[in-house]
Design goal:
The complex is a heterodimer of chains A (about 850) and B (about 130).
Chain A: E1 9-14, H1 18-29, E2 36-41, H2 63-66, E3 78-81, E4 86-90, E5 95-98, E6 103-105, E7 108-111, E8 115-117, E9 130-132, H3 136-153, E10 158-162, H4 166-177, E11 181-185, H5 198-210, E12 214-216, E13 221-226, E14 232-237, E15 242-244, E16 247-250, E17 254-256, H6 259-263, E18 274-276, E19 287-289, E20 294-296, H7 304-318, E21 332-333, E22 341-345, E23 355-361, E24 366-372, E25 379-385, H8 391-394, H9 404-407, E26 428-430, E27 435-436, H10 437-445, H11 452-459, H12 469-482, H13 499-509, H14 514-521, H15 530-542, H16 557-561, E28 564-565, E29 571-573, H17 584-597, E30 600-603, E31 609-614, H18 619-628, E32 641-646, H19 660-671, E33 680-685, E34 699-704, E35 707-712, E36 724-730, H20 732-749, H21 756-762, H22 766-776, H23 782-795, H24 799-804, H25 807-810, E37 829-832, E38 835-838, H26 841-846
Parallel strand pairs in A: 1-2, 1-7, 2-3, 7-19, 9-16, 10-11, 10-16, 11-12, 18-20, 32-33, 33-34
Antiparallel strand pairs in A: 4-5, 5-6, 8-17, 13-14, 14-15, 21-22, 22-25, 23-24, 24-25, 26-27, 28-29, 29-31, 30-31, 34-35, 35-36, 37-38
Chain B: H1 9-15, E1 19-24, E2 34-38, E3 41-47, E4 53-57, E5 72-76, E6 79-83, E7 90-92, E8 98-100, E9 111-112, E10 114-117, E11 120-124
Antiparallel strand pairs in B: 1-11, 2-3, 3-4, 4-9, 5-6, 6-7, 7-8, 10-11
The chains are: A alpha/beta (about 850), B mainly beta (about 130).
The complex binds siroheme (SRM), flavin-adenine dinucleotide (FAD), iron/sulfur cluster (SF4) and FE2/S2 (inorganic) cluster.
Chain lengths: ~850, ~130
């Protein structure tokens, strides 16, 4: 029954909202031959009105003022019925029925039913005086209630807005305009959390407060109370507090009105919304859906611009044209007078490797952030709070190369734009320490800093959380190049080699001690950068014990005592639990050791158990117990294999297709102790459901019916990245060989502290080139890599067991060279949730009761 | 006998005996510190590659933890140094001055005179702990 575009037919539109209006306008304006006649059925009693401008009602606009262009609806082939709610779609007969019993036949049906405003399912959500904020009737109701209640109570009202998003803030402003003192309750820690990061949200909070609207973040409403007349009188919050209120407006989000479509058996997204394709077609070719009710690629968006885009697509296609919905633009701007906020594009820097540049001026309440691609060239998105004047100009630049000017928008608008290119001098590069691009450049040009490390020392940029260091390095390199200076890639002042060059130098020369290497290739006596790097290189080449000979002097404290240093100078102990699989007996031993030594215990994120608060001198006794029970070092301290996380796999899980635990254990035992440029983490999942989160790991293995799929280069941490597919359908041997080579090649060529993710990304020729090296031996090194790995596997010994067997090594664990039996007197603990934790400075000085050192009950 | 400080232990012993015998030189590993306890105060001792011995307070002024002896020993432009194992600030072993503050306000560590007599290490504690 679908009419062809040449013959005339009838379109029925369900819903008379903004998007329906645009659809009708677009369809009739381009249909001079009159191919379609349109019936619009809307359940509100008004003809389509400007919902976006709804708040204008409180500024004095009437329903007439808000009405959308009436000429569209008075067109000769358009009829609009207000107050008529569609209750059923009869797809077989191509008919819809309305609540008053009328039926309308269609050739094409367009669903434009929008959304309804959600309320929280709280006790008392529907008391008198509780509102949502969506329709003309809602705002009219609010106005009437405020007037009546104010008169009854004889005082100004206090109002709560539940939900601190775009809409909530607008509603708070509206209440204020009506003389109500509003406060906003936001359940999480950020206002406008869909659009703003924490920095932006905090700046916004200050602006909102300055406008006289109280903001309470992390506040969850748990109940609404009414007085005896049934009128709302208060709110209870999750922290137990109670707030008196006279009106409550819920702005906690919207839900697509897909109930008609659901009942008619159209495809509906599990999260709500009528599923459409790029042409706005639903699962029934005679029915289209547009606006907020439509779900495209799993998303419904509560903004009008995408709805208008869909309206255009639908009209074009009904007229026989080609058009496709391009996807959502989620850019948004807050409409609250005196408070400028905008967010556009990839505002949260979710693009892999995105960099961000922030300008913040807390005094004037301005926070601006631009998100840039990893080469700082392309604008990806941004957040503007306090001064959104740049929004209109910046938004179109999303996805384009960023010339000189756009970044200058970060600066206060009264300053002249940056001269040319690059980041403006005012742009904050390091937000922890408030260092601007200009300061960084000056460090290079005025203060002769020769590399990023020197700039860091000189300006403090990158010296706090470190997250800006990549951007810093790029800026410094660009500035050095611009001033004609050489960019040093050396490790530190002692070696002018990169780690990869040093690796080759050490390998080819055959030198095995620090003294010999530094005398031949470097200068001085080394430092905390080159010594651990060389220790790692020597360990990869010769598998010697971390404490043997001069190697011991090169280790960071963690590797030196084979434990992780904690903030108070005590250590943590992590026994290896391969694949996360542990016997009940093993658990008992760990529990007993923790109890006997008074150690705080915690399950780690890596499927094992961490024991905290061990003194240096306790480590051997603790490990004696663990080694005797069959445990070995978990290398939680080393730049080496950490854990191989596994899911339960085919042994137990009804979906598993291979034994993921068995493979995880095999991998962990194969690569344990392998020293590398940075730590290595693996994951093995027994099927594509991926419960082991293997794709977040350096090496991810996922079982399929056809064999193992191998993924490489995943990372959590500061810059999370998913691992990418490296090979499919491998058998056990093929998998091990591929991993052997991949890892050994990484160990030889990566930079110091470079995880596999950035290494893969920066490797010349990319993933394809690496596949070549591993599978096709394009560099002719495969045999060498295989041999190197085989010799690591052969030479592996548990470094804790070896240490316990050597009295010379054990001497390193004495507390004091002149008092080996005395425990470190500086350690102090207090009990918390049944375990010990380090005392705070305050607790120490105030003499609050504490446990002096963890217990020493057992010492063999 | 090697004396690294102007005053000899003998001369001082006459009056107040401020020198404390701590350990043998051989008890100290080259380029790896050791902690010592002198009258309840924690001291870090370092033996550098060229055979010199230095003493500093054991408490790292940046973290407040008693850990300096566990840092990596090396040099910066020829100056003997230790890097705190906690947050990697670098100290001049001769003066206690901070050579790399890692972006923090500089804090120095107190150093103590060291003397070696017949293979035995003596330390003279100077100043109050800070
Ligand atoms: C114990 C544990 C937290 C917990 O209680 O769950 C932990 C604790 C530490 N992590 Fe972690 N990480 C732990 C799991 C993780 C995970 C999750 C995972 O492995 O599944 C991640 C993200 C995944 C990843 O690495 O890609 C993680 C990302 C980091 C990072 C960031 C690495 C990056 O590439 O950006 C660091 C910093 C670093 O290594 O430079 C770090 C560093 C640290 C250090 C070593 C910080 C330090 O230098 O003192 C912490 C001390 C551990 C200790 O004393 O035992 N930790 N850390 C987890 C130990 C797992 C284990 O059994 O070995
Ligand atoms: C106060 C406020 C401010 C806003 N500000 C902005 C903004 O600044 N920027 C922005 O992009 N967006 C804003 N929005 C959102 C914007 O208004 C919506 O995205 C837009 O109106 C969606 O249009 P629509 O036609 O899809 O749905 P609607 O406008 O909701 O229209 C759907 C209509 O269908 C009717 N209907 C539903 N079911 C039936 C049925 N069975 N039978 C008959 N009729 C039915 C409904 O009653 C409604 O009238 C704001 C919304 C509000 C409430
Ligand atoms: S996230 Fe990791 S590094 Fe940070 S505090 Fe937790 S354990 Fe320590
Ligand atoms: S942003 Fe520069 S150190 Fe945190």
């Amino acid at each position: 029954m679908v009419s062809s575009s040449s013959s005339s037919g009838s379109v029925v539109v369900v819903g008379a909202g903004m998007v329906a209006h645009r659809f009708v306008e677009s369809l009739t304006a381009r249909d001079p031959e009159g191919r379609w006649s349109v019936t619009v059925l809307g359940d509100e009693k008004y003809e389509p009105y400007d919902r976006v401008g709804l708040t204008g009602y409180f500024g004095g606009k009437t329903a007439e003022d808000l009405a959308l262009d009436a000429r569209v609806l008075t067109h000769e082939r358009v009829s609009v019925r207000t107050g008529s709610r569609v209750v059923r779609i009869d797809r077989e007969n191509c008919e819809v029925a309305t609540a008053d019993g009328a039926t309308h036949r269609y050739d094409r049906l367009v669903l434009a039913t929008g959304s309804f405003a959600a309320r929280l399912a709280l006790d008392g959500f529907d008391h008198e005086g509780c509102f949502v904020y969506r329709t003309l009737d809602d705002v009219a109701g609010i106005r009437v209630w405020v007037a009546r209640r104010t008169a009854q109570l004889g005082r100004p009202l206090r109002g709560a807005v539940v939900g601190g998003g775009l809409l909530g803030l607008e509603a708070a402003g509206a209440l204020q305009a009506e003389g109500v003192a509003p406060f906003v309750l936001q359940s999480n820690e950020r206002l406008m959390s869909a659009q703003l990061d924490l920095g932006g949200a905090k700046a916004l909070e200050r602006l909102i407060e300055a406008r006289g609207i109280d903001v309470r973040t992390s506040s969850v409403t748990t109940r609404v109370d009414a007085d005896r007349s049934g009128a709302v009188c208060g709110l209870e919050l999750r922290d137990g507090s109670w707030e008196p209120v006279d009106i409550v407006v819920f702005t906690v989000g919207v839900r697509p009105r897909d109930e008609l479509a659901r009942a008619a058996g159209l495809r509906v997204d599990p999260r709500g919304g009528v599923v459409i394709d790029g042409g706005c077609d639903t699962s029934d070719p005679a029915i289209l859906a547009i606006g907020e009710v439509a779900s495209f690629e799993g998303q419904c968006i509560g903004l009008v611009a995408p709805g208008y885009a869909m309206a255009e697509v639908a009209a074009t296609r009904l007229l026989g044209g080609e058009a496709a919905f391009p996807g959502f633009d989620t850019s948004a701007k807050l409409k609250l007078s005196g408070v400028e906020v905008a967010s556009f594009g990839d505002a949260f820097a979710e693009t892999p490797n995105a960099l961000d540049v922030t300008y913040a001026d807390p005094v004037s309440g301005v926070y601006k952030k631009l998100v840039l691609s990893d080469d700082a060239q392309t604008l990806l998105g941004g957040i503007l709070v306090g001064d959104a004047s740049a929004y209109t100009a910046l938004r179109p630049l999303v996805g384009r190369a960023l010339g000189g000017d756009p970044a200058a928008y970060l600066m206060p608008s009264d300053l002249a734009p940056a001269p040319q290119g690059d980041l403006p001098a005012d742009a904050i590069v390091c937000s922890c320490n408030g260092v601007t691009a200009g300061t960084v450049r000056d460090a290079v040009t005025e203060h002769d800093c020769a590399d990023a490390a020197e700039v860091k020392a000189c300006t403090k940029a990158g010296a706090a959380c470190g997250s800006c260091f990549t951007l810093l390095k790029k800026l410094v390199a660009a500035e050095l190049a611009a001033s004609g200076k050489e960019v040093s890639n050396g490790l530190c002042e002692h070696f002018s080699f990169t780690r990869a060059q040093l690796f080759d130098a050490v390998r080819v020369s055959g030198l095995k001690t620090f003294t010999a290497i530094v005398e031949r290739f470097g200068t001085g006596r080394g430092c905390d950068i080159c010594k651990p790097a060389l220790a790692s290189i020597l360990a990869s080449l010769y598998s010697e014990h971390v404490l043997s000979g001069e190697l011991a002097t090169m280790q960071d404290t963690n590797d030196h005592v084979m434990a992780n240093i904690q903030r108070d100078g005590s250590y943590s102990v992590v026994p290896r639990i391969p694949g996360g699989e542990i016997t009940p007996e093993g658990l008992v031993v760990i529990g007993e050791v923790a109890r006997d030594f008074g150690l705080y215990t915690k399950i780690t994120g890596g499927q094992r158990i961490d024991l905290f608060g061990a003194r240096l001198d306790q480590l051997p006794a603790i490990w004696k117990r663990l080694v005797d029970a069959g445990f070995e070092s978990g290398h939680a301290y080393g730049k080496s294999l950490r854990t191989v996380k596994s899911c339960v796999g085919s042994t137990w899980c009804r979906y598993g297709v291979q034994d993921s635990v068995g493979m995880a254990v095999q991998l962990e035992l194969r690569y344990r102790g392998l020293r590398s440029p940075h730590k290595l983490k693996f994951g093995v999942s027994g099927c594509a459901r991926e419960c082991a989160e293997a794709r977040g790991k350096d090496i991810g293995v996922i079982a399929t019916e056809a064999g193992w799929n191998l993924y490489v280069g995943g990372n959590g941490g500061f810059t999370p990245r998913h691992a990418v597919l490296f090979a499919e359908g491998l058998d056990d041997d093929g998998l091990l060989r591929a991993i052997d080579r991949f890892l050994m090649f990484y160990i030889r060529t990566a930079d110091r502290l470079q995880r596999t993710a950035p290494w893969v990304e920066e490797y010349e020729g990319g993933l394809e080139a690496l596949k070549g090296v591993v599978f096709d031996d394009t560099l002719g090194v495969a045999d060498d890599l295989d041999r190197a790995m085989a010799s690591h596997i052969d030479a592996y010994e548990d470094e804790w067991a070896a240490t316990l067997a050597d009295p010379e090594k054990l001497k390193r664990f004495q507390s004091f060279v002149n008092a080996p039996e005395v425990a470190d007197p500086s350690l102090a603990y207090v009990a918390e949730r049944g375990q010990a934790r380090p005392a705070t400075e305050e607790e120490r000085t105030s003499g609050t009761v504490f446990i002096g050192g963890t217990t020493l009950a057992v010492r063999s | 006998m090697t004396i690294l400080d102007a005053t000899t232990p003998e001369a001082e012993t006459m009056t107040t005996d401020p020198w404390t015998r701590v350990c043998r030189v051989d008890d100290l590993l080259v380029e790896r510190g050791a902690a010592a306890l002198i009258d309840g105060r924690q001291i870090a001792l370092f033996r550098t590659f060229d055979g010199r011995i230095y003493a500093t307070d054991q408490i790292d002024p940046f973290s407040g933890a008693a850990v300096l002896s566990r840092g990596i020993v090396g040099d910066r432009a020829g100056v003997p140094t230790v890097a705190s194992p906690m947050y990697k600030q670098v100290f001049d072993l001769r003066t206690g001055a901070c050579l790399d503050t890692q972006g923090k306000e500089p804090l120095s560590v107190r150093v103590h005179p060291v003397a070696v007599t017949d293979g035995v290490v003596f330390v003279r504690i100077s100043g109050d702990p800070r």
